[in-house]
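ok so dumb question maybe but i'm new to this and my supervisor (M.) told me to 'just get the structure for Aminopeptidase P family protein' and walked off. so i did the thing. is this what she meant?? sequence i used:
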Amino acid sequence: MKHFSDYLYVQSIAKSSMKELGTFIKEGITEREIVMKAEDILRQKGVERFWYYNIGAFVHVGTRTNISESGRDYRPSEQKVGKNDIVTVDLSPEINAFWGDYARTFIVIEGSAVDEIQLQCQHNSFADEFGHGLHTEKQLRRLFKAYVEPEKTFEEVYLHMNRAIQQLGYVNLDFAGNLGHTIEFHKEERSYFERGNTRKIGEAAFFTFEPHIKHANGAYGFKREDIYYFRNGELKVL
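this is what came out, is it supposed to look like this??
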């Protein structure tokens, strides 16, 4: 596939940077500090540009994880990570015009970021709610992979996955209602998983799936984003 190695390289930087960022996130750190640290990590790995309105890390803390906004309007806040809290991070590195796009949700319990195995060992209301949200994001990813085919349209996937979100008791928080987009060389050229987009998914070389959700009765938002592509008709994660 043309440019596959270029996209794989920049996405690998996003993934390793996210992992490194997890050791920095803890109680008392502000949203702005997380943005600055994330962008510093990306630059240390060779990233010189950020394709999403020059934002390297789109970060929200606590109940601000419910906020869905365009990068045109985003300004990181001084809100601090709490003792039991949640942080969403969306990275947008660019190298030689090739994009990475990768988002994850960090869970902070008793002041420190924990992985999913550690979270399962916790027994409090925060851990239960946070764990359920992470589980739902993974479940949506499985449903997405089971449904998506090259001949499906972006609209068909949008409708199917939004029904799945509702059936799981969650709400799509995206300000535009979409669930992902194609990877392009110019952000204005992106196609979205949205109503009315009858383009076939197989026509796109790379695309994201990035549901931004919250439980219908919950207080926090969750994000998980990866880049996908088809190889011999089979859906793969970059």
